[in-house]
Amino acid sequence: MARQVTGPEIERLIQAMAKLPGFGPRSARRAALYLIKNRDKVMGPLAAAIAEAHEKASVCSICGNVDTRDPCTICLDERRDRSIICVVEEVGDLWALERAGALNCLYHVLGGTLSAIGGLRPEDLNISGLVTRAADPQTREILLALNATVEGQTTAHYITERLDGLHVQVSRLAHGVPVGGELDYLDEGTLAAAIKARRPV
Ligand SMILES: [Zn+2]
């Protein structure tokens, strides 16, 4: 058994950090040491920010975005074009599209994609909420901004069928999104071009 080199409090910090995406035990140790060395300048403000976000973060009951209020800032923003709802897989995709700045619309976060193998079923995703919103007379376009993966495209197909018969235009992002490309990793220019060149389904 490995010998203990530090107290349980620091060990707990390392273990918690190792659970972060992109972190493993090694990088968690390095980051924890950095925090402790910069206790006042970095660790204090970070701890306060985490505590505050932990207390106030919530999921928007309309669109699924993460914010500190419900409905979220985007859903409450009267300057947005409320006739377009852009559908994304995850909150990270919504934030990426907002960074690209090419859209001024509302959003709908599905919370994943359909997958045949051990994946999510339609009822696991926020699809019925989307159908309800699409049926609202003020909605004119549903823009599917799903990833160019098999799962993303299967989901896009399923949603298009579910919206059949409603008076909305269903469109999807144009080429420019590489196959298997995840929106969150695309640069803003590529995303903006894909949005501008979107086409009807
Ligand atoms: Zn919202």
Describe this protein's structure.
This protein has helices at residues 8-17, 25-37, 39-56, 73-76, 91-100, 127-134, 150-162, 188-196, and strands at residues 58-59, 66-67, 81-88, 105-109, 141-144, 169-172, 199-200. By secondary structure, the chain is of the alpha/beta class. The strands form two sheets. It has a five-stranded mixed β-sheet with strand order 4-3-5-6-7. It has a two-stranded antiparallel sheet with strand order 1-2. Zinc ion (ZN) is lined by residues 60, 62-63, 65, 71-72, 74-75.
Features:
alpha/beta; binds zinc ion; 8 helices; 201 residues
Biggest sheet: strands, sense, closure? 5 strands, mixed
> Could you give the distance between the termini?
59 Å
Percent of residues in beta strands?
5-15%
> Structural class given helices, strands, pairing?
alpha/beta
* Strand segment count: 7
C-alpha-based Rg, rounded: 20 Å
The set of bound ligands, ions and cofactors reads: zinc ion
* Widest sheet: strand ordering: 4-3-5-6-7
Number of helical elements: 8
Name the overall outline.
elongated
Helix content: 40-55%
* Average pLDDT reading: 89
Helix and strand succession? HHHEEHEHEHEHEHE
* Poorly predicted parts: none
